[in-house]
Amino acid sequence: MSKSPNIFTELHSENQFVTEFSNGISLYLKREDLLHPEVSGNKFRKLKYNIARALEQKQKTLLTFGGAFSNHIAATAAAGELFGLKTIGIIRGEELGRNLQNTLAQNPTLKYANSCGMQFKFVSRADYREKETKAFEQRLKDEFGEFYLVPEGGTNELAVKGCQEILTENDRQFDFIAASVGTGGTLAGLINASGINQEILGFPALKGDFLSKEIEKYSFKENWTLKLDYHFGGYAKVNSELINFINNFKKKYKIQLDPIYTGKLVFGIFDLIKAGYFPSGSKILAIHTGGLQGIQGMNTFLKKKKLPLITF
Ligand SMILES: *Cc1c(COP(=O)(O)O)cnc(C)c1O
């Protein structure tokens, strides 16, 4: 397994020019995906100040929640290993715990997290829905002792603070900053770090109108919009149009996108450009948050569904 960057000192990514469209609109990608081969760049950023806080509190254990292919689970496991913190992942899906060896053999995300030393507790979907309650937390404390709790998807105030560092002074030259939205923590960080003349566009990777509220909770500016038409049916839902877009994009620009987040983001940007949404001459910076560790798992699913696979 490749070495992790020190997330306190080594989170710097470059903007890569992708292409210029006929109306002078140019697209750049901030290559946060290159921060680590397995871990989504934004997940490390979200953990940065949380780990600092856990270390300050002399905590020995990080505990968090996620689905079986969660980028956040992979990131927490990697960061815990890096800083000598024990990690516990509460994973949705009781059935996955019945035969752990079998699960690990079939699930690259959990296999990676396990290789970083993460301990799993598999819970039913009903229990998983209760995970934010005090009663559930107490049960976890009874079982595992003290821990530093990181919420599902990693979003809290400290996470947003970490995501504010995605943008630099140099990025003020862009008219639009675009990013995929899961919990909204990353977008809130981008909004807080943006200039007043910049417009921040969020592309939710899932259905639902609760995201605006989440983003408002953590951000203090109004120069942002959500583009709600690019979730492709919901979280982790894909179709062959999206897969083909990801594969063609890779062929043409030699950049790998993931099917859950960044594929939908870049598809949406191309679609909006076609629809004339951006004024001519606009400079767009899209954040490539990563997510590439999820491709293998998605391909297993696509194969079963007899859909085209993601070239990887
Ligand atoms: C988690 C994730 C997101 C979404 O980030 P939020 O802060 O939850 O909105 C976007 N892209 C990738 C690759 C991710 O792993």
UniProtKB/TrEMBL annotation:
Modified residues (N6-(pyridoxal phosphate)lysine): 43
Domain of life: Bacteria
Record keywords, A-Z: Pyridoxal phosphate
InterPro entries, sorted: ACCD_DCysDesulf (IPR027278), TrpB-like_PALP (IPR001926), TrpB-like_PALP_sf (IPR036052)
Record-annotated active site: 70 (nucleophile)
Cofactor: pyridoxal 5'-phosphate
One MF term in the entry's GO annotations: D-cysteine desulfhydrase activity
Domain Tryptophan synthase beta chain-like PALP: 23-290
Family: Belongs to the ACC deaminase/D-cysteine desulfhydrase family.
Protein name: 1-aminocyclopropane-1-carboxylate deaminase
Organism in which the protein naturally occurs: Salegentibacter salegens
Lineage start: Bacteria, Pseudomonadati, Bacteroidota, Flavobacteriia, Flavobacteriales
